[in-house]
């Protein structure tokens, strides 16, 4: 049984905590941003928040109001006076850094960073992700304490990123490191993708009726027209249920014609 | 010369527009969210916004205030009464859909969707991405008009996603489809990674001084101690500049000892 995230008030949990990276907000300014950051963390399965020297003190009711239910993360957030205190028990710390810096440091993409954090975590190491204050970002002293910097590949002509957005991207990438969802699948919802036999059964029905009504009367064009319809009906997957509907459509159109 | 995003007021541009996907906000409720969405779009290089039946009408000053400089996207936003009107000139439309639906439809991840949108765009097709209203999301009629649904892999125990956050993830994935940043690199900032010769030169200096001061006097342990130091100095990349600093550190420590 994994530990799960539950709060002081015993509300619904928001998932298994595990050994996920600690999100360290360094000198954050707006309590709302701390709340929306908690929400983004919950979205991506990051449950541990540490706050270094929040400008307006802590706790702040406005943070909880902005968290949209990610209260448990705020309830459990730890406050520190300095970055050194906040990272003392961590083995690796990565710092997000939107702007280029003139320092010698490994520089990772968000994805590269998330993968390395996952690897370190699976070795049993405690890792942290530092985010700077809203306007200025992390300062040079903060960054000298980080093992590596993370810079997101984003539009260089518009890099202004909200704190919660910045955390969202790392939370999302963190979640993806253990996700195996196929990039494309067909939801078939109780029916199934038609077999070639089921499709051919429908094509036979359609072609018989089109022969019957005279649509395919030009003998020279007939093979090409039939082939083109086959191309259309094989372009995307069709379900058995949809074929039954199409059988009905053909039948009803024919009946209406016969009645007329 | 590519077309660039410039606004009515002729301010600074925020990048080349290109044939990027149209973001279609369907019945959005809060003008602030339209503004923060524009900001997220600019971050990821999505420049075309369409708004279907905004609850509070359009334009709304609050949207511009929340856009943090992504005004050009709001200035150029087009408003439509219906989804059909908003998508009439598009070739492919994908709908984001946080919750499972009982429909037969291709289902993509954010990454899978971004890659397909990029492929379609590079074939010259106009594509769109639909996002539903803040609380309810897209309805069944909206989704019946989409070629595919996109659902983000995120913490199923906490799926509550702000509109701008949802757009941010697609904008980020869109940007990544053309990004080639290496996942890890070393910023060396004017210096260079030390060659093995430069490193060995330093190791020689260090070992000579350690021999001199007696630290390596145990002949039996000496080879292992030297090897361990080599392991340490080869674990991460070291720059030529850092080696010069380390030479200085060794020299100064030795001088201090000699003075004493």
Automatic annotation (TrEMBL), chains A, B:
Record CDD domains: SpoU-like_TrmJ
One GO cellular component term: cytosol
Gene3D superfamilies, sorted: 1.10.8.590, 3.40.1280.10
Taxonomic superkingdom: Bacteria
Record flagged with keyword Transferase: yes
Residues annotated as domain tRNA/rRNA methyltransferase SpoU type: 22-172
Alphabetized UniProt keyword annotations: Methyltransferase, S-adenosyl-L-methionine, Transferase
Single biological process term from Gene Ontology: tRNA nucleoside ribose methylation
Alphabetical list of InterPro entries matching this protein: Alpha/beta_knot_MTases, RNA_MeTrfase_TrmJ/LasT, SpoU_MeTrfase, tRNA_m1G_MTases_N
Any Pfam family the entry gives: SpoU_methylase
Keyword DNA repair among record annotations: no
GO molecular function terms noted in the UniProt entry: RNA binding; RNA methyltransferase activity
Similarity section: Belongs to the class IV-like SAM-binding methyltransferase superfamily. RNA methyltransferase TrmH family.
Name recorded for this polypeptide: RNA methyltransferase
């Amino acid at each position: 049984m994994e530990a799960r995230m539950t709060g002081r008030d015993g509300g619904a949990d928001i998932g298994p905590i595990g050994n996920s990276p600690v999100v360290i907000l360094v000198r954050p300014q707006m309590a709302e941003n701390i709340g929306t950051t908690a929400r983004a963390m919950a979205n991506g399965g990051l449950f541990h928040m540490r706050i270094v020297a929040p400008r307006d003190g802590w706790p702040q009711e406005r943070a909880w109001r902005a968290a949209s239910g990610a209260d448990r993360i705020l309830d459990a957030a730890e406050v520190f006076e300095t970055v050194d205190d906040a990272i003392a028990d961590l083995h690796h710390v990565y710092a997000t850094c939107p702007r280029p810096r003139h320092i010698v440091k490994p520089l990772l993409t968000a994805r590269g960073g998330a993968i390395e954090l996952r690897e370190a975590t699976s070795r049993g190491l405690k890792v942290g992700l530092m985010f700077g204050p809203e306007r200025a970002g992390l300062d040079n002293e903060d960054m000298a304490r980080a093992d590596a910097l993370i810079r997101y590949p984003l539009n260089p002509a518009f890099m202004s990123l909200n704190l919660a957005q910045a955390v969202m991207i790392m939370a999302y990438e963190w979640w993806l490191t253990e996700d195996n969802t196929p990039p494309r699948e067909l939801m078939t919802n109780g029916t199934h993708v038609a077999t070639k036999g089921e499709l051919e059964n429908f094509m036979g029905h359609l072609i018989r009726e089109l022969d019957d009504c005279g649509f395919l009367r030009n003998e020279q064009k007939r093979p090409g027209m039939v082939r083109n319809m086959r191309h259309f009906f094989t372009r995307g997957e069709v379900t058995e249920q949809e074929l039954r509907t199409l059988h009905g459509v053909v039948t009803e159109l024919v009946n209406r014609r016969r009645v007329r």
